[in-house]
# Entry
Amino acid sequence: MLSPLPKTWILDLDGTLVKHNGYKLDGHDTLLSGAKEFLANIRPDDMVVILTSRTERYRQLTLDFLKEQNIRYDHIIFNVPYGERIVVNDKKPSGLEMALAISTMRDTAPMVNIVRDENR
# Structure
C-alpha cells in the first residue's frame, strides 16, 4: 500500500526488465515477460531511474532498444557496480516509509500490485 505522493522508481535493467546479458548472449535485448505491464502501471508523474552495470560501449544499443520498446524512463545510469544497491532515506514524521526494496529472481520481471492509499 503506497501513498498517493509521486514516487521514484529505481530499477535494475538486466535480469529485472530484460533478459540478463541477452545483449551479449543473443546479440540483442529481450524484454522479460510482464516487464511492459509492470512499467505501464507506473504513473506518469512518478520518476523512473534505470541502473545498469553495462559499460558506455553498450549505451547507444541500450537506448535504441528502450526507445523501440517504448520504455519510459527519466534517467539511466551506466557503469553501476555489480554489488548490492543500497537505498537510504528518512521516514516521514507521519510514519510513512520512504525507502522500500523488492528483490526478484533473475530474469523475472517484478510482479508488484501497486495500490495507492488516497487517504494518506
